[in-house]
Amino acid sequence: MKGIILAGGAGTRLHPVTLAVSKQLLPVYNKPMIYYPLSVLMLADIRDILIISTSEDQPLFQRLLGDGSELGLDLSYAVQPEPGGLPEAFIIGADFAGDDSIALILGDNIFYGPHMAEFLQESRRDLDGCVLFGYPVSDPERYGVGEVDEEGLLVSIEEKPAKPRTNRAITGLYFFDNRALDIAKNLTPSVRGELEITDVIRPYQKEGKAKVIDLGHGFAWLDTGTHDSLLDASQYVQVLERRQGVRIACIEEIALRRGLVDAEVCHRRGASMAKSGYGEYVMKIARQAQSAAPDRMAGAGATRKAGLG
């Protein structure tokens, strides 16, 4: 599976802040917004990732993330000239995706919950058509809304309905098999002049191949598209990080924990940001990994001597 982060658009709901910079480069508490969707793909064990942005913003994303090698990733970049809807990501990223399945995530969505890596990887393994992720909201008219049957299969989906049939919003994370590329290529723009992601999903729904996984209690899904929601997201991250002593969406830590980089590379990344609390945290977890390594080696040696290795 390959990953696509859609980080284009004009961010008009955040004007005047986004008149000069991409929304996905704005800070959510102590790190750029794009770290959050990138971390989700990393936790799903996806290493080959395409970032789609505007031509003006692409050099800024490249400056921030480079080619991904310092994180054990392979990052590519592409341009979305004008906002044309989510399915454009499949059209722009068709050559990148090749024959692989695709995980599409919106660059302004934040997901957080227990056992996130295992949850995402299991969803990948079970992919047969498309997998969507539902979340209960108080204002479903702002979102794509899905109805499901007893088996968790999608029965209907509506984009921003005036009278929602349910409060289950379909979040900005989607797993699709490769057929989504052809479906997107043959879509007709809606009355709004954009391609709609619901039109990519409907063929799967009609075939009983659209599975909806509800994000349960303990999971958080945050949309950072307005000034208030951006502030709410920052405060949410701040509270959790202060209470738990961890960093949410710390891409260096995820790369280290998943074996994509070693402690030396992780520490070097942290040292390049040493004057910030974020950089200090990255160096700390790298030092912890370095100090734990001899203990693991000693334990392995003892195990071998005991005839258990």
Automatic annotation (TrEMBL):
Coiled-coil boundaries: none
Cofactor names: Mg(2+)
InterPro entries associated with the record: G1P_thy_trans_s (IPR005907), NTP_transferase_dom (IPR005835), Nucleotide-diphossugar_trans (IPR029044)
GO annotation, biological process: hexose metabolic process; polysaccharide biosynthetic process
Gene3D superfamilies, A to Z: Spore Coat Polysaccharide Biosynthesis Protein SpsA, Chain A
Pfam families, sorted: NTP_transferase (PF00483)
First-tier enzyme category under EC: transferase
Enzymatic reactions: dTTP + alpha-D-glucose 1-phosphate + H(+) = dTDP-alpha-D-glucose + diphosphate
Database matches in CDD domains: G1P_TT_short (cd02538)
Enzyme Commission number(s): 2.7.7.24
Signal peptide from the UniProt entry: none
Entry's Gene Ontology molecular function annotations: glucose-1-phosphate thymidylyltransferase activity; metal ion binding
Keywords attached to this entry: Magnesium, Metal-binding, Nucleotidyltransferase, Transferase
NCBIfam families: rmlA (TIGR01207)
Similarity annotation: Belongs to the glucose-1-phosphate thymidylyltransferase family.
Function: Catalyzes the formation of dTDP-glucose, from dTTP and glucose 1-phosphate, as well as its pyrophosphorolysis.
Protein name in UniProt: Glucose-1-phosphate thymidylyltransferase
Gene this chain is encoded by: rfbA
